[in-house]
Amino acid sequence: MKKIAVIGTGYVGLVTGTCFAETGNDVICVDIDKEKVDLMKNGKVPIYEPHLDVLFERNIKEGRLRFTTDIAEGIKDAEIIFLALPTPPGEDGSADLSYVLGVGADLGKLMTEYKVIVDKSTVPVGTSEKVEAAIKAHATVEFDVVSNPEFLREGFAVDDFLKPDRVVIGTNSARARKIMGELYKPFVRQGNPILFMDEKSAELTKYAANSFLATKITFMNEIANFCEIVGANVDDVRIGIGSDDRIGNRFLFPGIGFGGSCFPKDVQALVKSGKEYNYDFDIINAVLRVNDQQRLRLIDKVLNHFGDVKGKTFGLWGLAFKPDTDDIREAPALYMIEKLLAAGAKIKAYDPEAMANVKKQYDFDIEYVDNQYTAIEGADALLIATEWGAFRNPDFELIKKNLKKPKVFDGRNLFGLEEMEERGFYYESIGRRTIV
Ligand code: NAD
């Protein structure tokens, strides 16, 4: 059993804290957001993440998971302190380290015995040195700073955390290495590795992983765009290349671009890190450029088809940047809404989990409805922006009945071309022929 403090109780912090409690550790989660902490103290999970609620409730009940807004109370007894703080993009695209370094300085003032400070936030290469300096400026005790980037995916966060493909731990301290190895032992029982390396390599591993995945998706989006031009079918091309082990069949589905809280910001931050060292990432710059265009690809198709959309109504399925999350950060749907509204269209939107977040954060002049079929009542077309499970096998007859004309613009390639043809839909998707 280890005593752990997790500072920052968002997607990563709450999952980290809960999963460490689940493996028998004593965990206290610290957050400055009082409303969030009060909610958690009352047994409520403040985010939507599958399977989290069960573990959350069990560990609170068994006394291994607590919450506070008081950092001093939070870290008092902790041997290991995780930083799961935001690192949002600054105005120039570089990662804003003010949260991480600010808390680092606080820790320096508060620590009265040796502690391992673990950076779980995604940060540019070289940040652990900055964190160390921020702590050292005030510290009177020994400490180690470890880089332990997190690879969980929202929507699968608990499963990913409990059974990671690998755990990356960046440290040159033997003392910290031993403590971290013991902590993660229960998570690697199936033989998945704990990879020890230096701090800089660990930090860069995270940016390299996200940038590689963003590149893979973007590459496939470009192939899909070209498929449309030459009359090829991207489904076949995807399977054709994905069957090659060197390529692999995952992360090859084309769509309306990557979004979310991680890929856009991490890819941009890597470019920015490169610039600081006078290195220009050609590939990654191109990825960002292509993705900007891809996010609006479906709306371009809509505008192309309808010409003028002024006064036309569109039913929009999906707001979250991907299914099984309420996270809307950098969601393609938001860019689509902006462009459609600017063109004078009306939108009726439905998302199973993300509507509250959009309502709270954006004052879009759109209608939110509580059912996917209500969204398309009297609409000129259905637009699909997120591949939620409930959208995959819908009541096609009801879709036809509710729409003015059976027109579907699918940014996630949810349906087969033949079935849409048989059902009599006008159907546009990504990288495949249009069914007219
Ligand atoms: P988040 O915004 O969901 O959570 C951050 C939390 O930190 C918030 O609850 C906020 O109130 C709290 N906070 C801010 N300042 C604080 C302070 N001074 N003291 C205590 N709490 C404070 O962010 P997230 O999605 O959990 O991401 C955290 C980090 O993990 C980021 O660097 C991100 O890039 C990285 N990451 C995220 C994911 C993901 O899928 N979300 C995956 C891997 C890595």
Automatic annotation (TrEMBL):
Record: active site: C262
Domain UDP-glucose/GDP-mannose dehydrogenase C-terminal: 315-417
SMART domains in UniProt: UDPG_MGDP_dh_C
InterPro entries documented for this protein: 6-PGluconate_DH-like_C_sf, NAD(P)-bd_dom_sf, UDP-Glc/GDP-Man, UDP-Glc/GDP-Man_DH_C, UDP-Glc/GDP-Man_DH_C_sf, UDP-Glc/GDP-Man_DH_dimer, UDP-Glc/GDP-Man_DH_N, UDPglc_DH_bac
Gene3D superfamilies found in the cross-reference section: Cytochrome c1, transmembrane anchor, C-terminal, NAD(P)-binding Rossmann-like Domain
One of the GO BP terms on file: UDP-glucuronate biosynthetic process
Any Pfam family hit: UDPG_MGDP_dh
Catalysis performed (reactions): UDP-alpha-D-glucose + 2 NAD(+) + H2O = UDP-alpha-D-glucuronate + 2 NADH + 3 H(+)
Residues annotated to bind NAD(+): D31, K36, T87, T122, E154, K265, R329
EC identifiers of the protein: 1.1.1.22
Entry keyword set: NAD, Oxidoreductase
Pathway(s): Nucleotide-sugar biosynthesis; UDP-alpha-D-glucuronate biosynthesis; UDP-alpha-D-glucuronate from UDP-alpha-D-glucose: step 1/1
PANTHER family: UDP-GLUCOSE 6-DEHYDROGENASE TUAD (PTHR43750:SF3)
Family to which this protein belongs: Belongs to the UDP-glucose/GDP-mannose dehydrogenase family.
Name of the protein described by the UniProt record: UDP-glucose 6-dehydrogenase
Species: Putridiphycobacter roseus
